[in-house]
């Protein structure tokens, strides 16, 4: 029997790459997002089923998303919480609306999704994967809302793993480093303008101290996501897997010794 997979933030980036792999593996995949255009484009390219909705909205889950999934597929086996973004700026420059937007995008979207889907995951003894970030482990510059909410995402994952493991539900998180997604492309823009760089040059610059010296592609991260959601990872729960080219293994105070 094919799996039923729901991916929030499934219209672009890592979510779209996960949809591509999981449809190819025979799963029935639903991609959830607020923006119709990228969602439908990814659906055409992958064969996933697009569902327009806000993953952070209880009402959308109750009134639109879950009824549509149940009608077409039944119980959900796998939830991938890939929706996110927002939260850039230092603490002193972050107003209340920007702070709330970061919470809604990165944390509430995952919390509302998990809470809505948990009864089905319990029934199917399924799994949930949180797409976190190396910003869940350390702080980058001027990204207070993003860093704070991505750190909190690991707490949510661990709570789900702790509370629902006895009912057969697995919960894990992946922490990518730089990935060539539309969001990362936007982050490259100030660097490109300031130093007159191309995209490739900007990515090489931000990865110069990463041991593998390059960013990941969305498909590379999706392959790791696919493993964590598969039966091959059946004993893995409560885990944080970094997929950052070795970035988090670097001892920053020793960088001055690098040739």
- Low-pLDDT segments: none
Helix coverage percent of residues?
40-55%
- Order of strands, main sheet, comes to 3-2-1-4-5-6-7
Shape: globular
**Main sheet specs:** 7 strands, parallel
* Overall average pLDDT: 95
Strand/helix succession: EHEHEHEHEHEHHHE
Total helical segments: 8
CATH topology: Rossmann fold
What's the assembly state of these chains?
A: single chain
Task: Please report the total strand number as a whole number.
Answer: 7
> Taking Cα atoms only, what radius of gyration do you get, to the nearest Å?
18 Å
Task: Determine the structural class based on helices, strands and strand pairing.
Answer: alpha/beta
Q: Please identify, by name, the CATH architecture.
A: 3-Layer(aba) Sandwich
Portion of residues in beta strands equals 5-15%
Number of spatially distinct domains: 1
Q: Please report the first level of CATH classification, the CATH class.
A: Alpha Beta
């Amino acid at each position: 029997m094919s799996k039923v997979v729901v991916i929030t933030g499934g219209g672009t980036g890592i979510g779209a790459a996960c949809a591509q792999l999981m449809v190819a593996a025979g799963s029935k995949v639903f991609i959830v997002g607020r923006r119709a255009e990228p969602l439908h484009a990814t659906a055409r390219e992958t064969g996933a089923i697009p569902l327009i909705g806000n993953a952070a909205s209880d009402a959308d889950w109750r009134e639109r998303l879950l009824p549509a999934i149940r009608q077409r597929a039944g119980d959900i086996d796998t939830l991938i919480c890939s929706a996110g973004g927002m939260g850039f700026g230092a603490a002193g420059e972050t107003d209340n609306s920007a702070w709330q937007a970061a919470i809604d995008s990165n944390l509430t979207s995952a919390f509302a999704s998990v809470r809505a889907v948990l009864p089905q995951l319990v029934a199917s003894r399924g799994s949930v994967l949180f797409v976190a970030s190396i910003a869940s482990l350390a702080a980058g510059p001027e990204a207070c809302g993003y860093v704070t909410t991505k750190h909190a995402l690991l707490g949510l994952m661990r709570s789900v793993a702790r509370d629902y493991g006895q009912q057969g539900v697995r919960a894990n998180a992946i922490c990518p480093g730089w990935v060539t997604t539309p969001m990362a492309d936007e982050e490259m823009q100030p660097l490109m303008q300031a130093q007159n760089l191309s995209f490739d040059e900007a990515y090489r610059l931000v990865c110069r101290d990463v041991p593998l010296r390059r960013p990941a592609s969305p498909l590379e991260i999706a392959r790791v996501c696919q493993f964590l959601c598969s039966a091959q990872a059946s004993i893995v729960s409560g885990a944080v897997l970094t997929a950052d080219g070795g970035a988090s293994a670097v001892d920053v105070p020793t960088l001055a010794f690098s040739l």
